[in-house]
């Protein structure tokens, strides 16, 4: 039993450098090469309106590629299409303001969250913020999970396409309330955990990305300020 | 001290030690289960090891409950006492292990065929991002090493007490090293880029569970079917033969056959005697009964009964 333990420990120490590895060699291929990145529109995380990809996650991924001596090739599409390509390993990473509770989590891997942003209920300046939203109408942006969060808190979600036209209570991420000039209340509906999507099983690639994102976590606030205007 | 309906006085300290070890086992297993749960990640092998640890809780719990129940005195409703209670619990536990093992094996093979690549990323610990795989290895190590030592401690106690549940439990603990090695190899394999290592490790662990389940199932089914008594190691117990030889020596005995069965720790049964003389038969039988009781603590409730011929009895003369 002692011999087995020694052998195991020796093996572990010897192989500790270089673990984990990618079954398909993604990190090795990307270093000094190209990152095939999928992008779907979700302002301010990803923005395609200006012709060139822009946004918080675009900045992060381009900086990451630079750290590997690689360039980025952007492919746009719908979230569903891109994640399917990612699953087939036709892409290396997909960005689109994705959050950890996205139902697509099974087919691909999400990184550890690089930013945790509170989803709060905000009021126009001068109004008294409510203690609860029981039975109150709260504006939410269409197509996000925020409507469900409002319902869970016993409020009545009102879906709109553009929050800037909303009057009264609004539920959105903290930076968005600030941008709209609203005052955030104490009511936190949830914490949005922002992630990027990676192909399953490419663990060296995943670990490198997670370490990079963790190093840059502090800069996310700055990037949000820059792109959210 | 309470009167004990099974164990003689000198066995009681051994039993108490076994009870202590089983409580310790339960406490330890809970820490191992929590440890693996916190590092489960995406690994099939970790999930299987986790389930195996949870199943390992069953034998110690059965042992402790049985220890309480078997000691109840026989009453009108249960004239033979409660010794069989443990066999029933043991049956349920063995069935659970077997079914779970089969299911997990099927699951692991399905996973292998689906060629799923497990993702194992990092966790943040004290400001550093560590590969979760390392933490998995530690959790697996903790779930195996103490178990092997506990198993080794319990094995001699099981032999002493003639306790098959304790014996099976000790063997399962001792075999935990296989689960650890398989699991650790699986995680290491993923680290080296061998995505299939995880499913293979999970399959190996589930075969181990299945094997444990079947072994125990076989033991308890033969027990409930009243086969001839066996030792905890599953060898034929020489006690019935000893009983026959001892009684044959007596002048009043022409021929004798013992038909014994196990109920938990102890033996019940009938000793059929063909007497050579009917003089003082009752006194002879009474004395034989007392001598058998003194011969071995396991001969708990053995009836000595006279008969004209051994051929009429069930159980055969050497066949079957």
Can you walk through the features of this model?
The complex is a heterodimer of chains A (229) and B (320). By secondary structure, chain A is an alpha/beta fold. Helix content of chain A is 33%, strand content 24%. Chain A is built from eight helices and ten strands. Chain A has a three-stranded parallel beta sheet, with helices on both faces. Chain A has a three-stranded antiparallel beta sheet with strand order 8-5-9. The radius of gyration of chain A is 21 Å and the shape is globular. Chain B has 320 residues and is mostly helical. Chain B is 59% helix and 12% strand. Chain B is built from ten helices and five strands. The longest helix of chain B is centred in the middle third of the chain and has 30 residues, at 132-161. The interface between A and B is medium-sized, with 26 and 25 residues.
State the major sheet of chain A: 3 strands, parallel
As a whole number of angstroms, the C-alpha radius of gyration of chain B is 25 Å
Apparent shape of chain A: globular
Task: Specify the biggest β-sheet of chain B.
Answer: 3 strands, mixed
Class from helix and strand fractions of chain B: mainly alpha
Number of helices of chain B: 10
The portion of residues assigned to helices of chain B is: 55-70%
Average pLDDT taken over every residue of chain A? 86
- Return the string of H and E elements of chain B: HHHHEEHHHHHEEHE
Low-confidence stretches of chain A: none
How are the strands of the biggest sheet of chain B laid out side by side? 3-4-5
Could you state the order of secondary-structure elements of chain A as H and E?
HHEHEHEEEEHEEHEEHH
N→C terminal distance of chain B: 44 Å
Strand-residue fraction of chain B? 5-15%
